[in-house]
Each structure stands twice: as C-alpha cells, then as structure tokens.
Design a protein that fits this description.
heterodimer; A: 652 residues; Alpha-Beta Plaits; five-stranded mixed β-sheet; 46% helix; globular; B: 121 residues; alpha/beta; Rossmann fold; five-stranded parallel β-sheet; 5 helices; 22% strand
Chain lengths: 652, 121
C-alpha cells in the first residue's frame, strides 16, 4: 500500500473526527442534563472507533494504541452509569489532544510507536477504565435499568448506526422505531411564568427521547418577551398521543401539535455524502488565477471586437461577446466554489476559548453567530489568526474575574460573542465581550507619553482610540502575558485586515464591554473597481464602496476649521485631494469627485479623471516597509499598465 | 387514605390559606414549617406525600431546602409557591428538584391542578 499517498488523506479525515470529538466533549461538558449523556458517549465512541480503524489500516500503531485505550474507556462509559463525570471528561479532552499528536507524528513518519511523552496518559486512561469496570461489576443491574429515558437515549441519531448500537447494547429496540418528531406547543395566554412552564414541558419531552432542536432557543425563554409558543424537535420512539399527553401533563398547555415527519433513511445520509467532493485547495487557487487572467483578457478582447467593421469582424464580435458572457459565468462559479462557511474556522474556537478561559481563571460563555455565512477560503484562512488575537484579548484584558464581575453587579460568567453577518458585498465579523471595556484615560496618557497624541487632546473617541492602539508597538499591558504576547496586538490585526482589503472598527464602553468589528470583502481575488487618474497614474477604487460620482465645481466647497468639505444635497462630506494625499505633483485642477463610503463614513475624493468601471484581478501587494498604508493591493489592467488599489479605510 | 401534605411558608396566613384549599379538597395537613431548616427536618420526620414550599424563607431559603430534601429523598414531590416576578428563582427551584409551581395570589383551582399534577407524576 502506498503510504505516502494515503497519509494526507488519513490526516484530513482523522482531523475531522478529532474535531467532532472536541465539539461533542464541549457540548457534553456544558450540558448539566444527564439524559443526553448516552448520546454523547455514543458519538465519542463512534469517532474514536473510526480513528482506531483508520490508524490500524495505515499501520500506525501508536495512534491505534491510544485510540484503542480511549475506545475502551468510552465502551465502559457506554455500558454502565456514568462515574466521575468530571474526571472522565478531563481524561477525554487530554486523550483527544494526545490522539491529535499521534496522528501528526504518524503522518510525519513516526507512526510505529506511541510518542513516549504520552505513556503516562495512556496509563491514566487504563487505570480509569479498570476502576470504572470494578464499579460497574458491583452494580449488576446497571445496564438493565428499567428507566425508559435510558432506553431511548442509548439509540443514537442516524439510522445506519442505530441498528448496530441497538444490537450491541442488547436491547430489544427496533432501529426503525426511532423517529424525529416536531412538537409545537403553545401555553395558555394566562399562564404565569411561561418560561418556567416551558421548562417543565421540556423536562417531560427530554424523558421521552433526545432533543435535536428547540425554537426559539431556550435561552430566550426566561425573557419577558417569551410568548409561550415554542417548537421542539425530538428523536423518540413514542407515539404522537403519548407525546401529546406527556406535554399536556405539564400543565397550562393550550395547544400541542405533534407532527410526524418521514423517518431519516440511510439513503438520504449517503447521498448527501456523495454530493460533495474533496478538492486540493491549491487547485482552487490556480483555477481562480486562471479565471482572473481570462477576465483581463476578456476586457481586452471586447473593445477590440467592437472595432471590427467587416462582416468577418462582426462574426468575431459576436463570438467575443459570447465568450465574454461565458467567462463571467465561469468567474461566478469559481468564486462560489471557493466560498466556505465561516463556521469552518469558527468551530475551532470554542475549544480554544475554553482552554484559555480556564487558564486565566475566567468564567466565559462563548457564543458564535452566523456560522453559515460564506467567505472566500483564502480570506477566511487569513482572518483566522486575527480573530484568535481578538478573542485572546477579550479573554485576557476584557472579561474580568468572576469576583470582580460580581462586585460590579455583573453575572460572574462573562459573555463572549463571535458573530458573522453579511452586508451586500461585505462580510462583517464581530468580537464582542461584556467585560471592563478599554480604559481610555490610560491609553490617552500612554499615547501622550509616546508622542502619538498632542497634549491638548482631552479625550479619545472610539476612532482615535483604535488609531492609537493600532500604532505599531503600542502597548499598555502591565505585564506581557503569555496568553496575549505583546499587550493588545491590535496593530497586528489591523495590518492583516487592511492587507485583505478590509477595515477594523472599535466600540467600547467602560465597565460594559468592547466590540471589534471587521469588515471584509466577500471575495478576495476579483473585484469591481472604478479606475481613476490622479496626476499621471491610474488608481483603482473598490466600486462597492463608491456611492456617487460628480463633476468637481469650486462652488461645492465648504471650508471649516481649515478642512475642506463638499455639500451634496443636504450632506456635508469631507473632501480629500488624492493628489495631495499621495504626494503627487500638481496638475491642472481636479475635475471629478468620487464619494466613497467606508466603515460607515463618507469621504469625497478629488481626482483628475474618471477612466472606467470594470472588474480587476487583485494581486497581493507587498508594501515596502515604512511606506504609506494607502494601498491594499495592485492590479494589472488589460493594456498592461499597473494600477494600485486604494485602501479607503486608511485614507480617512 | 388521605394524601398528606407538609406546608412550608414563613407567613402564617399563607400557610392557613394553602392549608384551607388543600383540606377542603380532602388532603391531610400533617405538618407546617416556617423556615428552610424546619422544612428539611419535618420532611425527614413526617415523610409527606407532597410538600408546598415558599421560595423565600429565613434560615435557609426554599431553594436550598428543596435541594436538601431531594438529596435525602429523590422521589420527593415538592410544589413551589412563588410571587409574580420571581421567574429566575423558580427556574432555580425546578433545577434543584421541585416538580411544579404555583404563583401568588393563589387561585384554588390552579393550586389543586398543580398538586394533582405533582402527585400524578
């Protein structure tokens, strides 16, 4: 068997299963309800078992050994009641990390034996398994619990596995009996404390099966706004009448409707798998580059085709137009193929946040929103590190210790939210915490000391604050912590975000919290631009941000406090002469003004000429160190001239 | 045989009110408690079929009493009596082991419905 060829494939797949393990462990840890434990254990067992099988097939004995030890541990947990839940979870978390190490080692060529550093862990796992075995043996009735709840929950979601699970646990459950039902409940209008009543309904449903979804989320039930109507999706073998009766038995239920959707068939599950295909990401990058070149050539071809006068020329023109249309369609498809839900990156974070929070002794609820929002994959890869930076900052400097929070009248548990939202052709990512906010006064003092801000400045608003924080080398961290490295690290985040053609914004309220907002273009490589001439050179303005274009007339100028603005209908917009900003020689007066919007603010840019609006292929731009930060990239136009792409966020 | 009830509330008139409602419906009031500590003790002594528990009481609150009683007897049937606007506390009480709740001011019919639900479960 060709090891090398399969090694990468093994690693990719093993990683997916390891990610599943992490996710399940996190959910398990946070779920105080014991009804779902068998479901979690079953999922953990499955994933570990699969990794073991794959490792064995590859001859990776080290990984196989570790996976086998964990599998035995989980098997014990499956067969009997749960002992020492916390210790078990710790062991499983460590075990997952160990497996990850084994997998990487194996792929690097050291797969024969277990990394020596993992031997102590292996011993701990074995010891735990034997200890729990003893306890299970002394309670012979345990696996044969009469508890209906236990019986239902052991059969895991996903019908193909269900029959195996049922056989293994030696129960008489028939696999097909487990069905997903939608239970729509409405409480009586005069029901007091609807949130609590809903909880009691949930408790009854939980004893009948495993809950897969609740709408609206249970966290909203204790709000004043909760109106007592909710829907629960539950995997259960119970009949509709039994479910209805159970729900009504909770009291104050006005209406309950149990829908019986079709049972999930094994066929659905496998055809889903067949619908996707793995592609090497380098292929996608190459595809995009090629399409980019095609786009440029299309833009060269079209105007040339127009000029053709002869009949042959007209045929050529038609062919050129058809080709252009196809290239546009191809461009769309390739861009779509590169789109990836941000969840792929977001999913790494809960485990990271948990670990960091634990190390720092902070109690944190981490929420992600908008996992399904899509972003170009290279953009997403590039933004992962900045997000980690911001999350670390929030945990280290933002969210306070539980005792500090309690003193301040806050809940001891801090809230950290990572959110993705789509806004036309931008994706907005936010990192929000309800911590202590940024100490403006302290930053101001330090900024003055470092000469970044004039002495006369009395206060820093959010924008100015961000500017200061983003200045290279600025740091107010009293101690450079191991967690965050050099203080805030906002300068690194800003640089990276700008390089991707995005912007960074800050909002902070002392005592209440901080929000960092990143705005990114949806796709990196091809973008529509407004080409303008300033002095002798051509520049590209991202068309998505161009709001309006006007002729420049002296009459539109308004001067206040030595700054020029223009009036546009009722709006006063600051004016910027690009020529001055870029330090280019003076030429005859500006002729046009392009009004752009970036980061919620509008600016009017005075340019010499408007050239064209067209698609450009964005080429990465390695700016010379210490040079002006006004450009986020470069492009080559159809006629071979280069044009710099203006980073609007840096101008204003 | 009549079902037995232990009534826990620090206010005499609340105990009387609940007691009247339940007595008229045929329940036997075998004990009363004024504090959480008393509630736990009397439960152990008397082993009632049902407990009504006020959320706020001196000397160990209702929620802690629920926890203690349930620890000693996981099958304990406890009905929380709460005032409006104490939702979070009721949630905590349920999580601590209470089976259901009623809200003051009491409507006899609601109280009896809740009691029957708790006894039926």
């Amino acid at each position: 068997m060709d090891q090398a060829k399969y090694a990468e494939l093994f690693r990719t797949e093993a990683r997916e299963h390891l990610a599943e393990l992490d996710a399940t462990l996190l959910t398990f840890e946070q779920d105080g309800d014991s009804a779902r434990v068998p479901e979690y254990v079953a999922s953990l067992f499955r994933n570990t078992h699969t990794i073991k099988g794959m490792a064995a097939a590859m001859g990776y004995r080290g990984a196989e050994r570790m996976a086998h030890a964990l599998e035995t541990l989980l098997d014990g947990a499956r067969r009997g009641p749960l002992h020492a839940r916390d210790a078990l979870l710790e062991l499983l978390f460590d075990g997952t990390d160990a497996l990850r190490l084994c997998v990487d080692d194996a792929v690097a060529g050291r797969g024969e034996s277990l990394p020596p550093v993992l031997i102590p862990l292996l011993q701990r796992v074995s010891a735990f398994s034997h200890a729990t075995d003893d306890q299970s043996d002394s309670a012979p009735d345990a696996p044969h619990h009469d508890d209906a709840r236990h019986a239902h929950a052991t059969v895991s979601a996903g019908v193909p596995e269900t029959s195996l699970e049922a056989e293994r646990s030696g129960r008489a459950e028939s696999a097909a009996a487990l069905v997903e039902r939608t239970v729509a409940v409405r409480l009586t209008a005069d029901c007091p404390l609807k949130g609590v009543r809903a909880m009691l309904v949930m408790a009854r449903l939980e004893s009948m099966g495993s809950i897969s979804a609740v709408v609206p989320a249970q966290t909203t039930w204790q709000d004043d706004r909760f109106d007592g109507a909710f829907t629960v999706h539950v995997h259960t073998a119970s009949e509709a009448e039994a479910i209805e009766q159970a729900v009504r038995g909770a009291g104050d239920v006005a209406r309950v409707v149990v829908a019986a959707p079709a049972p999930r068939s094994a066929r659905d599950a496998s055809s889903e798998a067949l619908r996707t295909v793995r592609v090497d990401r380098r292929r996608l990058d190459t595809l995009l580059e090629l399409v980019g070149e095609l786009v440029i050539n299309r833009d060269r071809l079209l105007p040339l085709a127009e000029e053709a006068d002869t009949s042959a020329g007209r045929l050529l023109s038609r062919a050129a137009h058809d080709t252009a249309r196809l290239i546009s369609a191809l461009q769309d498809e390739v861009l779509q193929a590169r789109m990836v839900p941000v969840g792929h990156v977001f999913d790494r974070f809960p485990r990271l946040v948990r670990d960091i929070a634990r190390d720092l002794g902070k109690d944190v609820q981490f929420v992600t929103e908008g996992r399904e929002i899509e972003l170009d994959r290279s953009l997403l890869d590039a933004i992962a590190d900045p997000l980690v930076h911001l999350l670390r900052n929030a945990l280290d400097h933002g969210i306070e210790d539980p005792s500090v929070r309690r003193t301040a009248g806050k809940s001891p548990s801090g809230q950290l939210v990572l959110r993705a939202v789509r806004d036309r052709s931008t994706v907005i990512l936010q990192v929000e915490d309800d911590g202590r906010g940024i100490d403006r006064a302290a930053i101001l003092r330090r900024a003055k000391r470092q000469g970044l801000v004039a002495e006369s400045v009395m206060e820093l608003d959010d924008d100015a604050l961000l500017h200061v924080l983003a200045a290279a080398g600025f740091s107010t961290a009293r101690a450079v912590t191991a967690i965050s490295g050099r203080g805030v690290g906002v300068d690194v985040v800003t640089t990276r975000v700008r390089a991707l053609g995005g912007t960074l914004e800050l909002e902070t309220i002392e005592g209440q919290g901080t929000v960092f907002t990143l705005r990114l273009p949806v796709t990196l490589a091809i973008t529509r631009a407004l080409l303008v001439r300033v002095s002798d050179a051509t520049y590209a303005l991202p068309a998505a941000h161009v709001v309006e274009v006007l002729e420049y007339t002296p009459g539109m100028i308004v001067t206040a406090a030595a700054r020029e603005s223009i009036t546009l209908r009722d709006e006063v917009i600051p004016l910027l002469h690009l020529r001055e900003r870029f330090g280019l020689p003076r030429r005859p007066d500006d002729s046009y003004v392009a009004v752009v919007e970036s980061g919620g603010r509008r600016t009017a840019l005075a340019v010499d000429a408007l050239l064209a609006q067209q698609d450009i292929v964005v080429k990465p731009f390695d700016a010379v160190r210490g040079s002006a930060p006004w450009f986020s990239g470069a492009t080559v136009l159809g006629d071979g001239t280069p044009a710099l792409i203006v980073d609007l966020g840096s101008l204003t | 045989m009549n079902r037995t009830v232990l009534i826990c509330d620090d206010a005499i008139f609340m105990r009387t009110m609940v007691g009247d409602i339940l007595q008229q419906a045929g329940f036997e009031i075998i004990g009363e408690a004024e504090t959480g500590v008393q509630a736990v003790e009397k439960y152990r002594q008397l082993r009632p079929d049902l407990v009504t528990m006020d959320i706020v009481m001196p000397d160990m609150g209702g929620i802690d009493a629920v926890r203690e009683i349930t620890k000693g007897d996981p099958t304990a049937r406890i009905l929380m009596c709460s005032a409006m606007g104490q939702q979070a506390l009721v949630v905590e009480a349920i999580q601590a082991g209470a089976k259901d709740f009623v809200v003051k001011p009491f409507q006899p019919s609601r109280v009896l419905e809740a009691v029957n639900r708790v006894l039926a479960a």
